[in-house]
Amino acid sequence: MFGAGINPLELIFSLVALIVAITIHEFSHAFAAEHLGDPTPRLQGRLTLNPLAHLDPLGTILLILVRFGWGKPVVFDPYNLRNPRRDSAIISIAGPISNFLLAIVCAILAQLMLRIGAAPNQTVSVILGLLYGLLTQIVVMCIVLGVFNLVPIHPLDGFKIVEGILPEDQAKEWHQLERYGIIFLIFLLFPIFGGVAPISRIIEPIIDFCLKILLPGSM
Q1: What DSSP string describes 13-61?
Q2: How far, in Å, CA of 141 to CA of 154, rounded?
């Protein structure tokens, strides 16, 4: 993601955007769990917007290097939920939804920065340009994180979302695949087809489509 020739300002913006995207994602999981009756995330200190509570070292490194990654998983106790399967799916989808909503808000603000960027005051123009750069990076990171986590493979959010949608009998069969999730994920992340990870071929068209809508002319 951070290829040759990237300038230090872009790097800073990307790292800030990464932290923001992960923090809002994991906080939203904790927030949903709390409101569905499970205090576990709050008791573990996850019901906070403090980034230090949510960053996962491996997931963060992967997001920086290959544009796919995750935060520290929010642990919740399904036995505290009124409808464990349904509520688990709601908690899981809360993370990606929060990323998409934040991406939309930041994209609107970025377009506003563009429209008023040609200000008579040069200092104001520079500040607006910097804000535009940061906002666009947040949009990119939020879309990447949100789309990636919708892949239906454990431990990504998509796995429990699918489990919550399926009829009960099929959901039980689906749940049996959880034990193989890490194996599937490693396979999808490993660049075996022409140096490209299989998961890239799956989700990058979706990511590009979203970014073209949110950031027209920027991608």
Answers
A1: HHHHHHHHHHHHHHHHHHHHHHHTT--HHHHTT-SS--GGGT--HHHHH
A2: 21
What are the tens digits of pLDDT across the range 171-181?
A: 999 999 999 99
Burial of 178 by CB count in 10 Å (0-12 exposed, 13-18 middle, 19+ buried)? middle
Is 163 labeled as catalytic in the residue annotation?
Answer: no
Provide the angle, in degrees to the nearest 10, between the axes of the packed helices 198-214 and 84-115: 50
CB 124 within 8 A of CB 156: no
Sign of CA dihedral 79, 32, 20, 182: positive
* Number of Cβ atoms within 10 Å of the Cβ of 9: 11
- Are 100 and 146 in contact by the 8 Å Cβ rule? The answer is yes
Cβ pair 59, 70 in contact under 8 A: yes
Which tokens in the block code for residue 59?
């997931």
**Would you give the DSSP letter of residue 218?**
T
The number of C-alpha atoms within 13 Å of 52 and in the hemisphere containing its C-beta is 0
Q: Which are the contacts of 29, defined by CB distance < 8 A and separation ≥ 6?
A: 41, 46, 74, 76, 91, 92, 94, 95
pLDDT tens digits, 137-181: 999 999 999 999 999 999 999 999 999 999 999 999 999 999 999
Q: Is the peptide bond before 78 cis (omega within 30 degrees of 0)?
A: no
Whole-angstrom distance, CA of residue 78 vs CA of residue 51: 25
Q: Is the pTM of this model over 0.85?
A: yes
Q: One of 10, 26, 178, 204 is an active-site residue; which one?
A: 26
